[in-house]
Write a structure and sequence with these properties.
Largest sheet: 4 strands, antiparallel
Helix content: 55-70%
Number of strands: 4
Distance between the termini: 67 Å
Order of helices and strands: HHHHHHEHEHHHHEEHH
Radius of gyration: 39 Å
Oligomer: single chain
Structural class: alpha+beta
CATH topology of the largest domain: Outer membrane efflux proteins (OEP)
Length: about 475
């Protein structure tokens, strides 16, 4: 009975330790917030003047439909989502390390000792005198083993905090990827609209130059011009026709790039290219630098990585300190299954040990040194992210401003050259202008209209890039 009472005490002790471990090491929301950078916490409940929602920023319904498809099917994004789930499982694993471990075991077996051993001699004696012992000799065991590493130096809890920060970092990485995917799709979509308009301009010029060629042929028959004029007009027409094939190829490639980002096989992209020149260019306020730090997911990712690297140094430093472990076991052990559940078959043990590195600490030192170097790397990465974000915003804001002015100037040029085509044709028909003037005017008008479309495409590209530079929006 004394053994039964001791076993009960051992069992109650470990129940108390178990409950304490489940309660004490658990990190409350307040404690977890201490390890999360302030900018990340503020980003959850602060509305900034530079926060952009992509559904409100990009208003083209065809573009919105493509982005919705990409956010579901993009393979690279789905790979990142799986990495986030793995990071979440890492938190679970780290959390389990500072809780007690309980293992249940059941075993059965038969032992045969050597003849010239004490156990073997006892077995031989029992064979000669079976009435002295049991008729059946075996080994049967049912027990529960407990082990718990005491987190005296908070090494295990710090490792859990680091895993949590790395998980948040992968989440911010996903947000940054979503912003990049949205920006790349939008830029390719506007490029596709620009190519459609370029193709339409070329086809209009083909019709115009075909009519001009017919006029020149009539004038040749009337002996007003030579064959040279006919050849020059025809050569210009063929050159213009050749331009459309290159643009048609670019249209196919751009469509397929959008389809790839959307995670689907090649298919025509539904779009409305007629109003491309009238596409709105919203004025964006960059806000103050502190808001930029909050809104950029890549900066928040770098900040979380820096916080995790700082905690990793603490974990590596704790490896120099002693570790403490409690272990215990309670169960039943008997040579006959009939005796297994009797009080006399109870076994128990309770032990505590301490281990500390004494000599040959090279592995621990190298881990600690590497953790410090990784922290320095994280600092540089954080600084680079801030610097890159600031430069991107300045560049894109300046780009929008300059391309708005450039588009206005080019529009005036296009208007003047379009009028010049009508004037030159009229003068040519009345023999008051040379055919070279007509050719030159047509070529200049075509080039200026194509340049106007390219400037508009650069405007829309700047609109996309400022959305990306200001942190974008992933919801």
């Amino acid at each position: 009975m004394k053994k039964i009472k001791i076993a009960k005490y051992v069992f109650l002790l470990f129940c108390i330790l178990w409950l304490g471990a489940c309660k004490t090491p658990a990190i409350t929301d307040k404690q977890e917030n201490k390890s999360v950078p302030a900018s990340y916490k503020n980003s959850q409940d602060t509305i900034n003047s530079i926060t952009i929602k992509w559904r409100a920023y990009f208003t083209d319904p065809n573009l919105l439909a493509i982005i919705d498809t990409a956010l579901l099917n993009n393979q690279e994004l789905n790979i990142t989502l799986q990495e986030i789930e793995m990071s979440k499982n890492e938190i679970m694993a780290r959390k389990g390390e500072y809780l007690p471990f309980v293992n249940l075991g059941i075993g059965a077996g038969v032992d045969k000792a050597g003849k010239y051993t004490w156990d073997g001699f006892s077995e031989e004696d029992l064979k000669d005198n079976p009435y002295k012992g049991p008729k059946y000799i075996g080994d049967f065991l049912a027990d529960a083993n407990f082990s718990w590493e005491l987190d005296v130096w908070k090494k295990l809890r710090s490792a859990k905090k680091s895993a949590m920060l790395k998980y948040l970092s992968t989440t911010e990485g996903k947000n940054f990827m979503v912003t990049n995917i949205i920006a790349e799709i939008a830029e390719s979509y506007y490029e596709l609209l620009a190519l459609d308009n370029l193709l339409a301009i070329i086809q209009q010029n083909i019709e115009l130059q075909t009519s001009a060629l017919q006029v020149v042929k009539f004038q040749k028959e009337a002996a007003k011009v030579t064959q040279l004029a006919v050849n020059r007009f025809e050569a210009q027409l063929l050159n213009t026709k050749n331009l459309q094939y290159d643009i048609q190829q670019k249209i196919i490639e751009t469509e397929n790039r959008i389809n790839f980002l959307a995670g689907r096989f090649p298919k025509p992209i539904i779009r409305n290219s007629a109003d491309f020149n009238n596409s709105p260019l919203d004025i964006i306020q960059s806000g103050i630098p502190s808001q930029l730090l909050v809104n950029r997911p890549d900066i928040r990712q770098a900040e979380l990585q820096l916080s995790a690297a700082k905690i990793d140094v603490e974990v590596a430093k704790a490896n120099f300190y002693p570790s403490f472990r409690l272990s215990a076991g309670v169960g039943f052990h008997a040579f006959n299954p009939g005796y297994l559940i009797r009080p006399e078959s109870i076994l128990y043990n309770l032990a505590g040990d301490m281990m500390a590195p004494l000599i040959n600490k090279n592995a621990i030192k190298s881990t600690y040194f590497n953790a410090n170097l990784q922290q320095i790397q994280a600092v540089y990465n954080y600084e680079r992210s801030i610097l890159n974000a600031h430069i991107e915003v300045v560049n894109q804001l300046s780009r929008i401003e300059n391309y708005v002015k450039s588009y206005e100037t080019k529009s005036k040029e296009v208007e003047i050259l379009t009028q010049s085509i009508t004037i030159s044709n009229s003068l040519f028909r009345s023999a008051r202008a040379d055919y070279m003037e007509v050719l030159l005017t047509q070529r200049e008008a075509l080039e200026s209209r194509m340049q106007q479309i390219e400037i508009k495409m650069k405007q829309m590209s700047a609109k996309v890039n400022i959305y990306k530079a200001l942190g974008g929006g992933w919801n």
